[in-house]
Fold each of these.
Amino acid sequence: MRRNIVLIGMMGAGKTAIGGELARRLRRPFSDTDAEIERAAAMTIPEIFARDGEEFFRARESEVLGRVLASGPGVVSTGGGAWLRPENRARIGEDGVSVWLDCDLETLWHRVRHRPTRPLLQTPDPRGTLERLLDERSPVYALADIRVPAQRGDSIEQTADRVLDAIRAHDPAILEGK
Ligand SMILES: Nc1ncnc2c1ncn2[C@@H]1O[C@H](COP(=O)(O)OP(=O)(O)OP(=O)(O)O)[C@@H](O)[C@H]1O
Ligand SMILES: O=C(O)C1=C[C@@H](O)[C@@H](O)[C@H](O)C1
Ligand SMILES: [Mg+2]
């Protein structure tokens, strides 16, 4: 049963912000896998990357994702890399509808450039890194059930409206089911 609404996409696309808005509107529990990992580890994501490495983080991410999907129906915001692992995509497909918040490079860069909270962007050329990640990942994000454009001109409320319209068009039962 496709119970959960699962937001995927690049860092800065708005998964956390839009996910919280959707959960409030639908009165469903909201989970953010990055926040759950930080809470369980009592460390920030940059600290986990620095101490234990990306592979360790990815393993925790898959565990947390499985746990929050099983506890649905809810709204789940994933970390930007979660959808890239085939096992995570399969798990999301079993228990949720995947929604790609598709955001352009300029908007992403505008949102993430002043934040030191994304370890993958701690490179000599963070904008170039962001662009490369966007190019590499977009074909994989495109495997999501639903794509919603999420550009800078749109408010969080407008993008949340678009997500709900797109889910309704895809399968209205997702919004009705408890
Ligand atoms: N229209 C908008 N849609 C989404 N986010 C917006 C919008 N306008 C401003 N923002 C801000 O942009 C930032 C979006 O980042 P957010 O943390 O939601 O992205 P994310 O996809 O969860 O990234 P990550 O993968 O790093 O967790 C937030 O600070 C949010 O408040
Ligand atoms: O895009 C990514 O790979 C990441 C995005 C963030 O949400 C965090 O999950 C972490 O910084 C990695
Ligand atoms: Mg987030």
Amino acid sequence: MVFYDGCSIFVLFIPYTFSYAELKAGTDDFSPINKLGEGGFGPVYKGMLSDARAVAVKQLSVASHQGKSQFVAEIATISAVQHRNLVKLYGCCIEGDKRLLVYEYLENNSLDQALFGNKTLFLDWSTRFEICLGVARGLTYLHEESRVRIVHRDVKASNILLDSDLVPKISDFGLAKLYDDKKTHISTRVAGTIGYLAPEYAMRGHLTEKADVFGFGVVALEIVSGRSNSDSSLEDDKVYLLEWAWQLHEDNRGLELVDPSLSTCNESEAKRVIDVALLCTQTSPNLRPPMSRVVAMLSGDIEVTPVTTKPGYLTDWKFSDSTTFLSADASTSNTDQSTQFSSSAGTTQLSDPNYTPVNVSASMLGEGR
Ligand SMILES: Nc1ncnc2c1ncn2[C@@H]1O[C@H](COP(=O)(O)OP(=O)(O)OP(=O)(O)O)[C@@H](O)[C@H]1O
């Protein structure tokens, strides 16, 4: 397929398109028994294709305003992006107003389930370290190595899936571009993932790949500590993971962050992960390293840059307040669906028309403390 965006001509490979009947048969008519879960984009079903491939079928729940060819063009972009640490997109289905995406099925569910779900899966230290590295490599590919640069926008533990060998695969990349970003949907997603949001994106909608670096830092700390980024059942000083991690770091007790359920742990690796995570979550995007440097620091190929300033944490955040604010804002947001890119010094700057500002004050970011 060839398409023209006003300045450049793109040649894209048309992705594999499945018939609705095939997916209906493969999921037993989208039987509730096969339902894997439901995310912001819609329900996801486990299915089996006629060639015996196990798949996850994602039904986009809000009809896209995009025309068929634009939808196919976007899918083609995502399908062209392939890496060991990204979930493989097998193809799509477009029939009438139905839009479905078909992914490889990953046996071991998501990282958040493994870390803070029912913990049927135990992740030892070396597995956790490899997961950190794998996620960092997947993001490096998306940001710096793939044909099209992609900012994921929603890096979090539930968007990292684990295959049968516990190799991490980043899911949902590129989806934000595809989706008909109704404001209600976006506000749900922003509210739902607040703990991973980079301050500049939360406050100003300023989106670069450094927002993903921030999200990675939060995930890395969750992997080391085995707890989620915010847990109100813990003692006051431990509720916010970033705040607690910084406190321990300042007191030279960084390794106390390590999950107590781990019987053994490689301390130098754990220290590296924590220090890199604190760098990744700096308030200023310029202080956050690019993902290729993160990989090099984690693997010990280069020294970890010393971190001297605290991360940008949202200490005073109240989830109920944020939901109220975001819902109220949703009705008044702009409806321009276009996304503008400009490129400078090799960095893709993306001003996100779907961004809903979050009512965050400087004190919430810990500034001036
Ligand atoms: N390729 C896949 N293989 C196996 N399970 C999957 C796959 N993709 C999604 N799932 C499961 O389906 C459920 C919903 O996933 P989905 O990615 O739609 O939402 P989410 O990541 O939980 O939330 P959000 O949309 O807010 O990011 C999750 O439990 C996830 O583990």
Amino acid sequence: MKDVPILVLDFGSQYTQLIARKMRENGVYCEIVPYSEPLEAIKARAPKGLILSGGPASVYAKDAYYPDSGVFDLGIPMLGICYGMQLMTQHFGGSVVAASHHEYGKAELTLEGNHILFAETGCGQIVWMSHGDKVEHLPEGFEKIATSANSPYAAIAHEEKQFYAFQFHPEVYHTEQGSRLLKNFAKYICGCESTWNMGSFAKEKIEEIRAKVGSKKVLCGVSGGVDSSVVAALLAEAIGDQLVPVFVDNGLLRANERAQVEAAFKVRLGVELITVDASDIFLERLKGITEPEQKRKIIGETFIEVFEKEAKKHNGIEFLAQGTLYTDVIESVSVKGPSKTIKSHHNVGGLPEWMKFDLIEPLREIFKDEVRILGLELGLPKEMINRHPFPGPGLGIRIMGEVNREDLEILRKADVVMLEELRATGYYEKTWQAFTVLLNVKSVGVMGDNRTYDNTVCVRIVEATDGMTATFAHIPHDILENISRRIINEVDGINRVVYDISSKPPATIEWE
Ligand SMILES: Nc1ncnc2c1ncn2[C@@H]1O[C@H](COP(=O)(O)OP(=O)(O)OP(=O)(O)O)[C@@H](O)[C@H]1O
Ligand SMILES: O=c1[nH]c(=O)c2[nH+]cn([C@@H]3O[C@H](COP(=O)(O)O)[C@@H](O)[C@H]3O)c2[nH]1
Ligand SMILES: NC(=O)CC[C@H](N)C(=O)O
Ligand SMILES: [Mg+2]
């Protein structure tokens, strides 16, 4: 097993992966394992430091999650975050109780002394809290190294053991100096050097792919999107013509998408792309289906069926490669800890049990913006890298309720108009993702003195870095006005356009 300088034990926080990612940004390779990882497996990775993540449970409750207690005796530095801090406290005989005041959001730190963990940060820094429990009494040997108005133990330390803990979340964006705090732990406490980068990641992945695939072939699902293009580039580098790239027309694509993808792939990757037209099968199976999760499962399953059928036409295909990212995984299934299912991404939670392929998913641990850096590293063109994400289930999850050909056409036309306006005003590049949704909500309008009773299109444009969180984009009103006017004038069947002003959380980016 490969050595990993910093290992995170995941107790189910939605933010766990951000810890790993912030560490990687600091040049320290970091991986996540479930909280229940056997002690021997942890030792085998020879980590220089362990991080205990946050989590939804309470350490004193019946359903609390405990790691192998041997992790506290490994003799290596440890950093507990929120639940991780509470766990450490309880393990060493301190007490954790339900707090009378829950603390969600911003807090200001007051430092006690000059701890090396806070090197180059400073007093009064803003941190982000998210907890309902609190440390009431510190265990022996621990002392506080920072406080906040509501948390007398905002940060604690046991110098002899080199155990540290934060009640706040250094991994989230809103903790101003969070990245620096994690770096300080890795650098000053664990003695890690900042030598890792996306170039070394690409090399490792290429080696791993070669070792796994041997002389077999790999079918790679490509969509023209960023993630699968990067995976295809990694595979092309690793195994050359043992790569069989397959693009599926599932009938849920945007206007002209198929032609664009075919053209882009030929020119840029120089590999022969196989296109399978499976639109009839997908649309037939979606008839009468309105429940979002059911739609997603049907689409996921049909993708695999199409891939397996295609694989039979070639000799020696044993693997399916997909551009699965961490975002797809964390929302679909409980990955490595006890987190909740939000929606089944077609390429993860939507995979059928009967699937025979062995999966190759080199991007499974990383985020979209990291993938973009990797893509540039691999020499992919900027237009391919900066393309907005487009989900595999496509327009199927952007038509509320049943999907049919007529509505697909309406939505395609609205989408073209919206994208034209965004591109013309430079807002395509300035935003993270933009699309239209057909709401299937009818309302009354008046056009040319006549009454209309037609459908509604929702415009959704968001800002994000990795898609884990997002805010609606503040698009100038005159641009929204043009989009609205043009959609209503140019798309038959639409008499109303609305703009989605919700953020994620509590909403999600897609509507289904
Ligand atoms: N039409 C398609 N044909 C073949 N494979 C697909 C198709 N759509 C999606 N996939 C597979 O599912 C994976 C996940 O889709 P997803 O949309 O998240 O990634 P992407 O399309 O590669 O990138 P982007 O997020 O930029 O759209 C893809 O990486 C690809 O392997
Ligand atoms: O390939 C995909 N298959 C899916 O099933 C899927 N569901 C959502 N998405 C994309 O993921 C990002 C986060 O979306 P949500 O906030 O809606 O979960 C956004 O970029 C979404 O477009 C998907 N991509
Ligand atoms: N974010 C967390 O780790 C929360 C820990 C614990 N569930 C609490 O509410 O205090
Ligand atoms: Mg896509």
Amino acid sequence: MIRFDNVSKVYPKQTRPALRDVSLEVEKGEFVFLVGSSGSGKSTFLRLVLREERTTHGQVHVLGKDLARLSNWKVPQMRRQLGTVFQDFRLLPNKTVAENVAFAQEVIGKSPGEIRKSVPQVLDLVGLGGKEDRMPGELSGGEQQRVAIARAFVNRPKLLIADEPTGNLDPQTSVGIMKLLDRINRTGTTVLMATHDQNIVDQMRKRVIELEQGRLVRDQARGVYGYQH
Ligand SMILES: Nc1ncnc2c1ncn2[C@@H]1O[C@H](COP(=O)(O)OP(=O)(O)OP(=O)(O)O)[C@@H](O)[C@H]1O
């Protein structure tokens, strides 16, 4: 699903790499936490997966494709197979809950009939049945995140990337969001989630990848501990 081979990233005008010689593989169906202190390289890692950035050295493969060899016009097609969820929800404020979710289908050319069928289904799945016509501003933070997850999931992505999805939520609401992401994972969608929340990581007992100053320092599922030199 994701493969990093000796990936380093140095941003323009920087001397210190944001990622240093990172190699790892995420298999189809896994749920993986990406952890590390602020500035350790988590967002850079996710941006490379989304091909919002390119590597300085090394290769990134996503869904079997070498992203360096993917022509620019094929990037949107690749991203359609991914769902993204962010800390700040990123909903369209002037569209209803249903319209926010439908939009994700409209942009990829789904028919109105398909959209009418799948939007209520996915809103039920995320626990928002009955709130289709609300505006995002009329929802709690947890509900807004559920809309964002519905939007990310409505096209049944192979890979869901979540960047601090519980960062703006209280602990109890966060548990609900994690249960939902777990449920989505159980449908077969691979989940890669960056987080600072150690409680969540402890509770979920999933694979944990830890970055420190751009290096992979822990990959729990594979029994790799300690620094890579
Ligand atoms: N666009 C950029 N240009 C230059 N340097 C950058 C850029 N984005 C990130 N960096 C640097 O790369 C390093 C890794 O940053 P990154 O945002 O990947 O860390 P992070 O682990 O996601 O941090 P946080 O938890 O605070 O979001 C940091 O030193 C950061 O300053």
